[in-house]
Structure formats: C-alpha cells, structure tokens
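User: Quick sanity check before I run a bigger batch. Here is a single chain. Can you write out its predicted 3D structure?
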Amino acid sequence: MTLTTFTEPALPYCVFSRGADRPRVGAGLGSHIIDLERAFGEKIFAAPSLNAFMARGPRAWQRTRERLIGFIRGGQITETVPTAEATLHLPFEVADFADFYSSLEHATNAGRILRPDDPGLARNWREMPVGYHGRAGTVVVSGTPVVRPHGQLAPGHARPDLAPTRKLDFEAEVGFVVGVGSAPGQPVPVDEFASHVFGVVLLIDWSARDIQAFESRPLGPFLAKSFATTISPWVIPLAALEQARVIPPAQDPVPLGYLRASQPWGLDIELAVHVNGQLVSRPRFATMYWTAAQQLAHLTVNGAALRPGDLYGSGTVSGFRRDEMGSLLELTAGGREPLRLPDGQSLGYLADGDTVTLSGSAPGPGGSRIEFGSASGRIIGSPADHPGAAWNAARASPAVS
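Assistant: Done. Predicted structure follows.
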C-alpha cells in the first residue's frame, strides 16, 4: 500500500496506535503522524476517537489548527510517529449514518439502466436531496475486509433464494462528518453548514445490486447497502478546503427557501477509483447537483437532531463519460458490458479477492494539493456455515416438500 504524504495545508486528523500503545488522536504531516496528546499536553487527544474534540466546535477547531501550524513552523513538533509504523483506526464513533443520491449524472445513468421504460428522474429528485438512513455500526475503516453479504435473490424465480450476492458493486462517494450537534426540533439552516460539519472523508458505499433489486420496492435500499460502508482513516478539516470551494451546478427549478444558500459549497474534489490496482474511473465531485450544505439542511428540516459523529454520504459521484462513472452498475451498463481493464482483463461485478481503492485530492493554497489519503476494501467470501448455505441445500433436497 502506498502511504499518502500530507502537506501543512492539509493536516488531516486520525486515530492511531503504535505497537501495544493505546489508540489516540493524531494529525498527518509528511510521512509522519503528530501525536497531539504529547504535542499539546491535552487529555482530549488521548481519547480513541475524535468525537470529544469535534464537539468543541469551530472556534476550538480553528485555534487548534492555528496552534499546530505555529508549532510546525517554529520547529516545536518532536512527538511524531512514522505512518508506516502506525495502525490507523476508525477516526470517530459513528453516531448515525445517512446516504444521499445527489449526482444528476449517476441518477440519470442508473435510471436508464434499471428503469429504461420509466422517466429518467422521479418528480421529487430536483426538489430535494433524496437519501436513506443506513446503519452506523457497519461503517468500517479502510483496510477492513468486506464480507460478501447474503440476501434474498429473485432472478425471475417464483420464490427467492437466500444466497450470497452475485452483483457486488462499489459507489465512490465523499462523506461529511458532523462535529457539533443540534437540538431536537431545531432545523440547521443551510448557511450554518460550516458551524456543524467538522470535516470530510472518502467513502465507499458497497452495494449488492441483486439484493437491492428485489427488496427496494416500495421502500428503497435496506440490506443491500447496510452490510459495510468503508471510510478513509483521515478526516480532512473543512478549513483545509477553502481553495476547493466552487459554485455548484445551476438548479432548476429553484429550490425551496430552506435549501437556498448564500455561500457556495460546491467542492472541487477529484476522485480516483482503482480495482486490483488498476485505474477504472476519475469521478469529479464538483458536478454534484445537491451540495453537502443543502443535504445537511434537508437532513434536519424535520427537526431531527444532529450528534457529534454523525456521518452522511454524498451519494455516488459520477459523470456521463465512462471514465468518470462512479460505480460498476454504470461502468458495465448493469453487468451487460464488462469493463476492459488496462491489463486486458474484463471486470463485471466484484469477485472474491478483488480490492477497491478510492483516493482523492483537492486544490490547496498556492497551487498545492490537499490529499485525502485513501479508502480501500478487499472482498472476501461469506462463511461456509452461513444460514443461507444450509437453507439452499435443504431446498434443493428431494426430501423437502
């Protein structure tokens, strides 16, 4: 695995350990991790997650960042650990997880593949950021194996089978990490996005397309997307992305008032997806129709409270060009047109042993790049003693009526 070298403008946060040491909070610089507990002498950085620090709010985030930069420039940082010698852990305790569907390109591409006889977009899609709630407990840090999930598959059968998915996919996304919570019954205005969101991670939304196809009507994804979600171990502070801010695409019709922002929160993040080390796509986040600020406003418009550690995914980042598509569903036209890899192999849906790696970067000050590190997961087979194996064996037996 290639380790990311972080510049001073990035200074991403992580939770790390070395050897038998306990996990604690650090910041990435170059090829090292700054031990923030030892550098600052503050117990809040001795915690095995970022939640308590994130809950302090934007002023504390900014003071810490300015102090850290001052220490670096003054040569006062001596407590560092080589990243290659560290174990990187899940950087925060995930309180809640929601995922959106906010790329016009992805929604259009997927609609043409899955519903060729229906209108491309549902009527609600251009009125609000469409999303669903996932399972916080299935969010895992990069490097955690992804077990092929079981579910009910019904490919034209009278009755479904309980079986491992045959159409395992990835979706390339960006995740937003809430630092400051909100009171129940109090929506978060769209222009208060930066007062609540601490930072950004890379996110792989694993998707079992055949399970999804049978379970999704009428309520949408459930087990097909709740078995694993992989995030990068590095949280890029929102403050590091000022140079990456861009005006998002025009929205038609003009959104309702609670979704109209006075400050643009489009982000010029360039993603790259590799499968088994081979580049398959370069999605561009700047094209996302709904912004992260609008997603947060919609997430809370009903009065739902935020908590430190809430995570929400952007939805698949995609494009109309094949080299910018963010899922195998799109890259292979629903599995009908296998993708030819640079080494000549064909790729359909993911097989056991395949590894997907998502990386990203954004513009920084003075022409620099803010690197995001990477999120990666390797597919492994379901255990042989899974109930699905026994169930299907019993169904196949002549003794079963």
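Residues 101 and 130 are 6 Å apart (CA to CA).

User: Great, the batch can go ahead then.
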